[in-house]
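Re: the 221-residue chain
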Amino acid sequence: MTDERPTDFQRARSAEQREIRKQTILDAATELLAEMPVREISLRELSRRVGLSKTNVVRYFETREAVFFELLNRSLAQWIEQLPADLPPAGTVGPEAVTDAIARSLARRSLLCELLSSLGSELERNISTESAREFKIAHGRLLSELAELLAQHIAPLPRPAARELVSLTVVYTAGLWPFAYPSEAVAEAQRDPELADTRVDFAERLGRTLHIAAAGLLSLR
């Protein structure tokens, strides 16, 4: 591979050009995630997919974790922006219908769910304090936006309880996703009728779990 494309990338100077370069790297990361789990994607592999040297990739993202942090937050922001269209109008239904809608909406966003499931176990294990701080501040702001939205749709859920429900949504998603989409060997084994009850329907299980959590938080009032 020649250095022609890396040289072109180095010429990006404006904020708009840098954003285009970053998006190219994020698009490559998205493609790789459709082929393999996060743990198998190295910065070298990502650089190869983009057609750049590692040196040029780190001009835009310090580490591979930084790439996935950015991708996670962008995916989360996009989901929050589009979620109102997936929810029933505020005040028209009970909490269960809202939590079911949230679960179904999340289930359609495999990239976001995959990244959330890798967050605590993989992505946050090899980063600097400053990187963790920057990511968590941006991530926390997005989760606060989500909490505000849930507080509007699950009445009379107080803001602190809505924030707790959002935190639980992240944890439940991270926990359920790998079991809903196991390895090929496990999926094959679960075709045995004796193992039928070990299969996890992500949307159904997450919706029920969130409904129980929301009911519990409402009862604590």
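The radius of gyration is 20 Å.
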